[in-house]
Amino acid sequence: MAKEESPRVSRRSTRSATSTPTSNKITEGGTEEAVDLCSPSVSDLVYGDPISLDVLLSTFPGRKNQILDLIQLLGPLNSPTLPFFVYGGPSTGKTSVILQLFRHLNRPFVYSSFRTCYSLRILFESILNQLILHHRNAANGYSSAKRCDKPSDFVILLREALTGVIKSLKESVGKSKFSKSERPINGYMTYLIFDNLEVVREWGKASSLLPFLFNLYDILKIPEVGVIFISSTSPDMFYSNMSCVEPIPIYFPSYAENDLRQILLRNQANQKLYSSFLDVVLRPFCRITRRLDELCPIFATLYMQYCKPLSDPGAVPNEDMKRRLYSNLQPEISSALNEIFRVQSRSSPEAETSRKPEQIGGKRKLASSEKLNELDFHMCTSAKYLLISSFLASRNPATLDASLFDSTGGSDSRKRRRKSSDKVKAQQETAEEELLTKGPGSFPLERLLAIYQCLTSVAEGSPDEEAGPDDWIGIGGENNMLSSDVLLQISSLCNANILVKGGSCPLEGSTRYRCMVSEDLALKVARTLRFPLAKYIYRR
Amino acid sequence: MASSASAAVVGSSPHRPLPPALSDNNLQPLFVLHKAASEKEDRKSVRRRMNIAPADHQRVDAGECMDGFQEQLQREAFEFVWSKIEKTIKAVLKNINSDAFSEINSWILESFQAINSFSSTSSYEATRSFPTAIDPASKRLFTGLVLTRNMEFVDDLMTFEDLAQHLKSQGCHVANLSSLEFSADNGTGGCIRSLLRQFLLSAVDAADMSILSSWYHALGNGTPVVVIVNELERCCGSVLSDFIIMLSEWVVKIPVILIIGASTVDVPGNILHFNALRCLCSCKFTLRTPVERMDAIIEAVLVKKCSGFSISQKVAVFMRNYFTSHDGTLSAFIRALKIACAQHFVTEPLSCLLKGFDEDENQCFQEKYDFLQEAISKYNWSITSCRRRSKVDERGGKKLVSAMVELKRLQDGWSCALMCLYEAGKRSQIHLLDLLCEVLDPDLYASRSPDSNSSSRKGSFISQAIQNVRDLPEAQFINLLKSWEKHVIAIPEIHGKVKDLQYMWKFGNAKRRKEQPPDMPRTQTSQNHLNVQRASKAVNDRAAIFIEYLINDLMQPMECVPFHEIVCFKNVEKLKAALAGDPRRQIQVDLLGSCRTLHCSCCCRYRDILLPSMQDTSIMYTLSQEHGDVINLYDWYESFKLILQPTNKGKHKKQSIFSKKKDTGKSEKLNEVAIQGRFCRGVTELQIAGLLKMQSKRRPDYLQRVAFGL
Amino acid sequence: MGAEDAAEKALNLLRSRLCNPTFIFRPLCDSPDSNYSKLKFIVSSSITEACNNSVLLLGPRGSGKTAVLELVIGDLLLEHPDMITVIRLNGLLHSDDNSAFKEIARQLCVEHQLLFSKMASFDDNSQFLLAMLRECGLAHKTITFVLDEFDLFTQGRQRLLYALLDAMQSISSQAVVIGVSCRLDADQLLEKRVKSRFSHRKLLFLPPSKEDLQRLVEHVLSLPMDSSLPHHYAAEFNAKLQSILVDNRFQEIIDSYWDSYPAIRHLAKFLFRAVSSLNLDLGHLSLDNFKTALPSIKRQPKMESLRDCSILELYLLVCMKRLEVKEQNSYSFSAVIKEYKTIHDSFQTSDYFGQNVCRRAFEHLLQCGLIGFTDGRAHNQGIEFRPVKLLISPSELTQGLKSYNSCPALLLKLCA
């Protein structure tokens, strides 16, 4: 009774919803009739203009077995299936293959990705909206057809929506021969596709959601429904606590090297040139990663470098040309191998200094230009001293502070350190271990402030160039050492992720801080202050 | 009351808004203590109330006996001047980033083209739930990395709002996500919800990207959608990464372009997950460094006097150091400037002359003339500089007017000289701030006598600048001359000097070209390359001499000019107290000397003895001084009780009010309870003030002092 | 041309059979001492003698508890029409009492054409339930409550179970509570007050014997002679099937699968995989359908993800293995990098990469689950310093390295 009610109602609502915007919408013509052609009917559950099998196969090199496998498992028209579990590393073409396959088969399906659907409610409502053919838009105030956020309600609504859709599909299959306005749809089997399933494991309520999803097929008990899961992590990450009969696994292995070559060659203008380029770069990069989505951007930029010396892009390379190109690409490759994130900078007057794309991390070892030992962001002096002292506080064991600094400041800390060298050694080893396993040590606020005091007193002794005739310490370096300024500085250091704070209230001594800066950054800062940091850090 | 008024004015500074009401009830110290951590202005006004700094006695007294008209004049003069300064600062900050903004805008248009080349999705496809593109390159999310090369972020909040405005005016859809949206607890949903709120201008219950895409395609006009994330360091990395990945999945359907504000280039690498990093196709833009902005502001406000107000050398040095050493934020600097300005107008009776100082001065002084008459006669003692020179008499008013005009003329000369010097120093990164501090130095001025052309001691910035002029390659030299000409256009005679410097340079060039036929043997070229250099060297020397002339003649520091007190703020002590006024120390001072603050007759007689009539918290804190850094709760309580109801010994006349029959066991009991209550309240207040730490589990009966000694 | 779509029709038939558990379990039901007959006796007794009953169906996953239950209910519905009302609850959906009562009320309303209000409160629903129980008791209609995933109902305060089982105690009501769970100790999870009201009837579902299995496979795979399928085709098909069934290579395949997954639903899954690879123009099943189905069902995910690793990731894995061999009880990424450096320094490997690249590889490993953090979600500091451990055994690692094509010999040497 209610079952055949729902689709008609929803269809009416969607028609009103979608016709109003299309009437007053100012889009390019093609889309317009596309919209009001497909919005009311069930036929926008299918992908749209089907493709042939060999187009499908040629679109995805190296995926032949998986595609044929899937076709077999989906079976002939209108034949029921058990749930699948499609898995394989990221960017191995799972999602695209499935979608294009459905495009080829031209069967109705409902797709929902857990990346976009970040919560139960969003997931449920998007699935229902698709089934009830409801588009959220300005006309209906961007509200979804049904409001539901509990699995129990969802099952009820889903069941009735599915039965409605399947019913209308069956009759549309019946009349699709002599109805020309709608695209024909193959069969009445409707498939639910859940993508990015691995994301759910991060959710707090995963424990309840995952079993529900995996049992959905058994709970629904509708033979005309197929369930397909797509995940980038292998099934055993899910079934550990899972209570269900596992779905049929289908595995997408990561691309082999020659697959990658074919895929990368797919839509290149100059095949020859690009393949000679791939001869150079593909092998070394495959030793790091075989992921397409990581290789593509790197290769794009490298290929530009590679083509730079060429006069015309259409040139067919001969041997010595290849050699020449390779020789001037060589340094680029070695640098690109060690970077994970490159930032271009537009060629502009003030960005002259950093014209070439610079890379994070890797440059640390590679380049040794002078712009490394200058600090590339502004800090005020007290913040710099705080940074250094926090760095020391988290690197050195607390027991050695006394031997490093004393009331007169660390000026004569060298010989003191010599004195206490033997006991230093022991603590040093432990400190090394700590640093290696637990990372930088944490310290209370008081210790930080004490070290800060020592350092500033030391700095006062040493001549300070940047303040010119009168040295800055005189003004408020010492006399309001512990004034709010320093505490404010600490808080802003925390904001800049230089200090990491554990605990609640900064005024309570119980808070422990931890300094996260890398050693070379600290050294850089010390260099700007002319502060001899190196002699305060313990080394073996 | 003048001071409290100033407190009110200062309190409403642009960055830390404070209702004037607050500054009235800073009479009770504890309230101040509580507020002290956050509000600097409060602290300052307290500090002044307590008259700890002896310098401001006479000024304040002068302020007290000042009549209403005077004060009102000063008030509106302040409003006038400060609004002017503020306007200037805003304008400077706005157009210092304009080139970066336009660059960002053009980049956005380019990347928008790139996105469109990837995705030709019809609005129908775009509203489908599944990704339509299969090319991995189409998942790239174009990201502009805007580098605010500054650890602090306060200054850049305005910058990013300006950026958003700029892009909106260029016709993009812009949403500005602050770092609060990317907190772990409200997750990805929070970001999307606020995105929708800003784009759709309506709250949607189930926030979903598909809504955004249908909204975008309903609009139908092809304009980029820009999302600005303004403070990367404070975002929760995982949430932001999820958000970015989600955006990158939708970028085919919605042409989203991300703009991230970060301090340095490698912040994203540290914060974002590598999956998110992979999606970004990023391009970096750099804003001006705080120092550059600072120089721009100084130039606009203090050097080219947008309003006659100026500061003395000590104040300048203090502010410079406060900027470089304490907190490197422009906002703090501007606040300091405002405080200085306000203080000046409060304390300086004649400061009202500053209003309309820079307009055509004659009538604006004439109309105040009658007031000036008696003003001078009243406060002539207060203007030391003119007393030094000549006895002020009834004709002081006219004298004053002429003096003001003179003052203004001097200022113009001074500023253009300083600008020339700055231009000369630019090549070796001499900052205007440092230069200003040096130029303002009166004794430095006194040291260099006009005849000795060795204008300044070695190593100083001035001498560096001059040296700079000496060895300047001619390409830059001509530019330098041009810039000088631009600066000195106001003053004809100097302009003439610059002119004939230029003539000379051109002449030299022409001569060189004449004696340099195109075809000539190599040996000769090298040889007369030398004398070419010699010639240009000569020009440089002339230029250097010109600069020294400027320095010696025009660069008279403010403090050496008669009547400078009217325009120039000198009292650095007060500013320091206002700005860096050390709250914790202040708290303790107030607690120990509470009777000084609340002037009650009874306690102030006996400075050193603790009396029960004193304020509880201050009694307790004074008592706690006897203990070490851990306080035994019980002993403390006992001593406290002893003070409040002294037994047989240690009682004096104050206590004798309590007659014997008064304190029976019953009232004792009551007192006991009451005392415990007061004690507990005292302890909590001390703890809130951050002077105590509550006892740990291990030692339940001990408190720890976290206050560091005075 | 007939063979083609006949084969397709046959394929559809087989697939729909395998997707429908009640069909699969039908052959196991005929024997008198089967769970089917016991359960049927219990329920029908409560129908005929108008008494209350409660029973637990316990058994491993896929051993056909729900299927048998469905069979029983279906048959009883045929035998005594409109004397049974079936209320189905699932622990995954209705584990909290509120939604459970609501769901019960909803189904009762649907059953008896009553108006169901979403707004009804917990108490309203429970009152309604008791009222309905009384009514049905008077009308001699049995209400059967099916609690799937019974163990999940025992979480929380068990108010639902208490309410139901308490209603069982009254004479007026006439109901059966059937709990289905794969936890064999499900009745131990009950609170005392609930347990005391529960009749400790338990039906245990054990894996069937070999010959039952044999019968079942035959029953599922053989085509019916009396159907729309052409007779000769069906006969041929069944003949081929017989020849496969008696073949002991087939027996081996079935056994090797049965040893790893001793449950009928799993077997059905396996058969489904095999059947779906049925060659349509060949027209009938062949042995290698089953042969190919076996590896594609029995997967070794760890091995696969090892095979997906790049050389660098393998290096990191080997480093971690070496650390574990050195009895470093807890080590972190930084330690692994140190080890990696030492290896590089000693052997001068060609692939030595920057720390951040290694870190990315490390995160790949985390993502594909070859390694894992030993601590909980402590995000206050970066990944570098969180303790990690290998999630694959060293033997697996070495085996994987051997099977990895173009694996550098150095790695094998280091790993050995």
UniProtKB/TrEMBL annotation, chain A:
InterPro entries: AAA_16, ORC5, ORC5_C, ORC5_lid, P-loop_NTPase. Gene3D superfamilies: P-loop containing nucleotide triphosphate hydrolases (3.40.50.300). Residues 274-324 form the ORC5 lid domain. Residues 380-537 form the Origin recognition complex subunit 5 C-terminal domain. GO terms for biological process: DNA replication initiation. Pfam families: AAA_16, ORC5_C, ORC5_lid. Residues 1-32, 345-365, 402-437 are annotated as: Disordered. Keywords: ATP-binding, DNA replication, Nucleotide-binding, Nucleus. It comes from the Eukaryota. It is found in: Nucleus. Residues 59-204 form the Orc1-like AAA ATPase domain. Belongs to the ORC5 family. This is Uncharacterized protein. It comes from Punica granatum.
TrEMBL record, chain B:
One of its GO terms (biological process) is DNA replication initiation. Pfam families: ORC3_N, WHD_ORC. Residues 1-23, 512-533 are annotated as: Disordered. InterPro entries: ORC3 (IPR020795), ORC3_N (IPR045667), ORC_WH_C (IPR040855). GO terms for molecular function: DNA replication origin binding. Belongs to the ORC3 family. This is Origin of replication complex subunit 3 isoform X1.
From TrEMBL, chain C:
Residues 55-200 form the ATPase AAA-type core domain. GO terms for biological process: DNA replication initiation. GO terms for molecular function: ATP binding; ATP hydrolysis activity; DNA replication origin binding. Keywords: ATP-binding, DNA replication, DNA-binding, Nucleotide-binding, Nucleus. It comes from the Eukaryota. It holds the Pfam family AAA. Residues 216-400 form the Origin recognition complex subunit 4 C-terminal domain. The keyword DNA-binding applies. It is found in: Nucleus. Component of the origin recognition complex (ORC) that binds origins of replication. DNA-binding is ATP-dependent. The specific DNA sequences that define origins of replication have not been identified yet. ORC is required to assemble the pre-replication complex necessary to initiate DNA replication. PANTHER family: ORIGIN RECOGNITION COMPLEX SUBUNIT 4. This is Origin of replication complex subunit 4. The lineage of its organism: Eukaryota, Viridiplantae, Streptophyta, Embryophyta, Tracheophyta.
